[in-house]
Design goal:
One of its GO terms (cellular component) is cytoplasm. The protein is built from 19 helices and 25 strands. With 622 residues, it is α/β, with parallel strands linked by helices. Helix 15 packs antiparallel against helix 16.
Length: 622
């Protein structure tokens, strides 16, 4: 039996978990569930990173000891993971004795191998990141590039890890293993950083008491990142080289937000090299979430209302939206209006109505699931697409393309809806055609069973509901065609995704203080806006929101990618004059190059910015 070990970062419990934590953990959960589905032996680790200075300060503000504060906050993560249906095998706390002993053993190994030495450190430090910044990373304002907060100047005698010693080995490993860091943009960032030269890093603190003492110098505590990274092995029983540790290490996937990729892809592998331990196979740094185009901010009240959206749409719809809406390696803009649209279109209409329609026809015309005795037109096409969907899904999940994986499944969902329409199965209830009707309905139910298996890593509650409604007592995990037994009694079926009207939504109130950010006229003049003609349009495979456009700017022809597929048919766009940002840096979107941007207005729908009358191509718009 193959094994699969996936981890999230351990989260700071200085406050309750937020949507960014949920995004990472749901993605890791999909991987864990998918590999269990394939019959692999899985370990899924998550937890909390309790020895951080910001945890100590948060506890101090509440008048609690750090341990008491962690004991209060850690359960909020467990509670959220339960609500989000997270199937972790280990919820790990770094205040556990298992971790403390393992972290000290790991540090002793680094020390004994000659890669730890004592020296003086001085530099700028971000308390929220728990990270020092080198001179080349500093701005004139000396603020943290992530949190936008002033950096603190620290000077103290510390222990250092010889990170610079492993620069060449790290470079070689990343070049020899192109899928070690995902996505490619993260990999390129790290290579650029590596090639500019690595410095040895401070790995102890003498000015703090909240932490794990150095095993060979109790006046120092282990720097939070050194201790935190070691949790991936200490949680498995590294201290005693347990069977669990020997079974699952090295990790298959370390999943995290892009801001902490550097620690995981440079510092952690270097320490593992120093300890003569195998390296993890994949470091995956996903993008950040924004909301309606704005950065999330507690102080400005811009946050993702997980509780409200889950209460309105359900946990599976929330999971589906996060995984379906965004390309996983890129930043994602969370829009409640898009969640609503996805819920009604994909879940309620495409999947929910298909299930209800098929169950209704079976209940009306048969006492149980009929035996498929009469094959006919379209049957083979449906069966072939079922196998193709299974094969494609494996490829997409192995490259962390969760959005494309779900679109692949939904192409099959839509194909079964067309199958119902093409065969006009509801007209076949006469005795002479009823066997054919029974075969079509059996195939539709078998497709729904297979769909339920494939969606189970993403939206597990929905998968279980589908199987119960089609008469399966125990959850069937077989992703092969023809496994549904005839003769089962199906239920009448409650809608698994009742439609939600827009008027039922809680409409957000505009913030009185929110004003568009002003730009100078000089900055606006930098934009080169040109009239262009759309010559040709085609969809982009696996990206149902994107279209690839060929446009004529008068003096040249260009290719542009536009996120308008849900609002315009390709044939309706050909011949339109549009406005293009012609001096935008080229970008690669879903492996398709885009040389410009089409202007459009967006709200509940998207409308292209066009011209009242035709103008010569290439005309500048001012």
């Amino acid at each position: 039996m193959s094994t699969f070990y996936v981890t999230t970062p351990i989260y700071y419990p200085n406050s309750e978990p937020h949507a960014g934590n949920a995004y990472t953990t749901i993605a890791a959960d999909v991987l864990a569930r998918y590999h269990r589905l394939k019959g692999n032996k899985v370990c899924f680790l998550t937890g909390v990173d309790e020895h951080a200075a910001n945890v100590y300060n948060a506890a101090k503000k509440e008048g609690l000891s750090p341990q008491a504060y962690c004991d209060k906050i850690a359960p909020t993560f467990v509670k959220l993971w339960e609500r989000l249906n997270i199937s972790h095998d280990i919820f790990f706390r770094t205040t556990s004795d298992l971790h403390k002993r393992g972290a000290q053993k790991f540090l002793n190994v680094l020390y004994d191998n000659g890669d730890v030495y004592k020296g003086k450190y001085e530099g700028y430090y971000c308390l929220s990141c728990e990270e020092f910044f080198s001179e080349k990373e500093l701005t004139d304002e000396k603020i943290c590039p992530v949190h936008k907060l002033p950096l603190q100047w620290l000077e103290e005698e510390n222990y250092f890890f010889r990170l610079s010693k492993y620069q060449d080995r790290l470079l070689a490993h990343i070049h020899e293993n192109p899928d070690f860091v995902y996505p490619v943009a993260r990999r390129n960032e790290l290579l650029n950083f590596l090639e500019s030269g690595l410095q040895d890093v401070s790995i102890s603190r003498a000015s703090l008491s909240w932490g794990i003492p150095f095993p060979f110098d109790p006046e120092h505590i282990i720097y939070i990142w050194i201790e935190a990274l070691s949790n991936y092995i200490t949680a498995l029983g590294y201290e005693t080289s347990s069977e669990h540790y020997q079974t699952f290490w090295p990790a298959d996937v370390h999943m995290m937000g892009k801001d902490i990729t550097r620690f995981h892809a440079l510092l952690w592998p270097a320490m593992l090299m120093a300890a003569n331990l195998p390296l993890p196979k994949h470091i995956v740094g996903h993008g950040w979430l924004t909301k309606n185009g704005e950065a999330l901010s507690k102080t400005r009240g811009i946050f993702i209302d997980m509780d409200g959206d889950i209460a309105t749409y359900g946990v599976d719809a929330f999971r589906y939206y996060l995984l379906r809406e965004f390309s996983f390696g890129n930043d994602g803009d969370y829009r409640p209006a898009r969640l609503h649209a996805r819920y009604n279109a994909d879940l309620a209409n495409d999947l929910g109505n298909l299930l209800n329609r098929v169950l209704g026809l079976v209940n009306k015309n048969f006492e149980a699931i009929p035996t498929p005795t009469t094959p006919g037109e379209f049957d083979d096409e449906v069966k072939e697409m079922a196998q193709t969907t299974v094969d494609k899904l494996d490829e997409h999940i192995n490259t962390f393309a969760f959005d494309t994986a779900l679109e692949t499944i939904w192409e099959f969902v839509r194909r079964i809806n067309r199958y119902i329409q093409q065969t006009q199965v509801w007209t076949l209830a006469k005795p002479e055609t009823k066997p054919r009707m029974g075969t079509i309905l059996y195939n539709s139910l078998e497709a729904l069973r297979l769909i339920s298996v494939l969606i189970s890593p993403f939206i597990p509650e929905t998968a279980e509901k589908i199987q119960k409604q089609i008469g399966l007592a125990d959850f069937d995990t077989v992703a092969e065609w023809g496994c549904l037994p005839a003769g089962l009694t199906v239920s009448k079926g409650e809608p698994i995704f009742p439609r939600i009207d827009t008027k039922e939504q809680k409409q957000p109130q505009p913030e009185a203080a929110a004003k568009p950010k002003q730009v100078s006229f000089a900055d606006f003049q930098k934009l080169d806006l040109r009239v262009a003609l759309i010559l040709a349009v085609e969809p982009i495979e696996g990206a149902d929101r994107l279209l690839k456009l060929q446009v004529d700017l008068g003096t040249e022809k260009r290719q542009v990618v536009a996120g308008i597929a849900e609002h315009y048919k390709p044939e309706a766009l050909v011949g339109k004059q549009v406005i293009v940002v012609a001096n935008l840096e080229p970008a690669t979107i879903r492996n398709v190059e885009s040389h410009g941007m089409i202007l459009a207005g967006s709200g509940d729908s998207v409308v292209l910015a066009t011209l009242e009358t035709e103008m010569p191509l290439g005309t500048q718009v001012r």
